[in-house]
Specification:
By secondary structure, the chain is α+β, with helices and mostly antiparallel strands. The protein has six helices and six strands; from the N terminus they run ααααααββββββ. About 15% of the residues are buried.
Length: about 220
């Protein structure tokens, strides 16, 4: 953590706009979890670049609008800040507000563009989009073929979003039936939920419309 007020202010000016960008982007659809380190790096990268660009614009604006700190005044350091404390404050607040608005707009734009298409190169998206229940409809019926030939039937409850399919587990809920590879008929399962590890899944069949008489 920064040990002085200037460092804390720089951290705030980068983190707040970047966070708003990510929140706005993720509101428009599923976004693959990139991992904490990568997400923090993206947050600060977007926030820093937008804030620097906005700060440059505010310095240019200060040449024509009174009450804001100009580049020459800001470069003079503590002497100017002590004699005119409110001008740097006003410039800082304006920079933070404008950078936050820009990041919100960028997140909205990127989210709309990403969410407007059924095609995605993001790992895991197609799993979650197909396995989630359509709006106002029942959960889809799912048949999972496991690596040992066992078939598990049930209604989809949730799916994890891990990038590696080995860890992308699928949870089904009642009614559940299990059809072992060496058995002729499926066996009813009394469990309310069953979790199938992603590393054992070979095939998933999805039925979004329920059919009568299906076991």
């Amino acid at each position: 953590m920064p040990s002085n007020l200037a460092g804390l202010a720089a951290l705030l000016f980068a983190a707040v706009p970047g966070y708003l960008y990510l929140v706005r982007y993720e509101r428009h659809g599923l976004r693959e979890r990139p991992g904490a380190a990568r997400e923090i790096a993206e947050l600060f990268a977007v926030g820093t670049f937008v804030t620097l660009g906005t700060a440059a614009g505010v310095l240019v604006l200060a040449e024509y609008v009174p009450g804001l700190a100009t580049l020459d005044e800001a470069a003079s350091g503590g002497t100017y800040a002590r004699s005119h404390p409110w001008e740097p404050v006003r410039s800082g607040i304006l920079t933070l507000v404008l950078s936050a608005l820009v990041c919100l707009a960028l997140g909205e734009l990127r989210g709309r563009r990403s969410g407007g298409s059924n095609w995605s190169n993001t790992p895991g998206t197609v799993w979650s989009e197909l396995l989630k229940s359509p709006r106002g409809e029942a959960d889809p019926e799912v048949e999972v073929l496991m690596d040992d030939g066992t078939r598990v039937n049930g209604c989809c409850h949730m799916v994890s979003h891990e990038k590696d399919t080995y860890y992308r587990d699928v949870a089904l809920h009642h009614p559940i039936s299990i059809h072992p590879a060496d058995e002729g008929q499926p066996e009813p399962c009394e469990a309310d939920y069953i979790i199938i590890p992603g590393g054992h899944i070979r095939l998933i069949q999805i039925t979004t419309a329920r059919t009568q008489g299906r076991s």
